[in-house]
Amino acid sequence: MIPTQEPVPRERAKQINPIVLAFVGDAVYTLCVRTRLALSSGEKTGALNRRASERVSAHGQSEALARILPMLTEEEAEIYRRGRNAKKPTKSKNATVAEYVRSTGFEALLGYLYLTGQTERIRQLFFSEDDEI
Is 26 a residue of the active site? Predict the structure, then answer.
């Protein structure tokens, strides 16, 4: 993962709107998933895109969240809850309301971790060696 700037101090990152954190987290998660797929598979781009879309969706992110929730620190859980509870400007076309709000919290947490420079924690939570992509 390539940071584009110095890490944001945690207190400043906590003041960022959770929907903005989710905006960043969505991009980070997409890049991570696509990178892992590209490096672990000899498939063509059409197949890779379908596999990535399954994971980078409200449903896929909601499933990933269920796996990591027990591992979150109190600080991480608070960031997730802020993202989950934030008023969203859009609605999902292909997911339940519950999946959509959980996925927004998931993305907000990922955005927070990325902006604060916690890339190793991202790997620990979201991309364990056992993860099947």
Answer: yes
